[in-house]
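A sample copied in:

***
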Amino acid sequence: MSDDSVNIKQDRMWHFRPSVPLSVSPYFQWPPQPEAIAGWFARSWLPLTERLIFFVLAWASWMFIVPDAQTIRAGGIGWIATLYLKNLSLMTILAGGLHLYLYRYSLQSKQLKFDRGMANRDAARFTFGNQVKDNIFWTLASGVSIWTAIEASLFALHAHGIATTISFSANPVWFVALFVIVPWWNSLWFYLIHRALHWPPLYRLAHHVHHRNVSVGPWSGNAMHPLEHVIWMSGAFIYAVIACNPVHVIFSQYLSILGAVTSHSGYEGLVIGKTRVMRMGDFFHQLHHRFYECNYGTSEVGCDDWAGSFHDGTEEGTKQIRPQTKLAK
């Protein structure tokens, strides 16, 4: 089959498709490729990326919003309410703002939009019979609540000295290194639990709620069954057993939870006026919502490449994956 015929078929499937084949990070490939590693790392953080934004936002939250250890040790529910309002506000502003910009008012039209459909459907499979209402309900009622409970638990463990807290002044190398390691852990954990969630009993019990979203939008990223929220977000409890600072916890959660908003935006980038401001959506994961049995993790660690479940976005990749989509209906 010629490259031209492949491109035609793929163009019919997608409204916008980035350059393929997709690649995974070179961090764990052998032999090491220093130049490729440096390039991937730089693109992950600069010049304006989700990772950099969440890093800055984590520091701002830690410095100005999150209660200090003394307040947490004093007890009560006021400090937990503060965390809940922080998380509710961040989720509403980010997911709600992107939904209004991209879908409600279509201020970007369909520039850089992966899927031909729009994530605003009425269908009986959704709670309340509407995709957006369904996604908002599961995100706020379940997602933000469980996020806050796990975050509060971790902060309490650190405040009471049960978990080991480090500072930059005392442990500068490990403190900085953790900001590099956090995305790797998030990617590995996501792959492991996501693969488990596709086990038929767990899929039918919980994960199907998320997969009702084939054409995704900003509110889709955290639209999950409560059991899935618990399983997914519990990966943060690693910060109860390794030496870290609460700011690492916040960064990890923002990267994972708020990152799911942008990765499910349905658009490869944010365009304001005629300028592409930053990369946003994730075609790697968009392929998972289309074909189900592929790309369980992210490209940051590349577990799918090792496990043979990597879809690189090409026609050949689709041919290899299609026979495995037993749970797609």
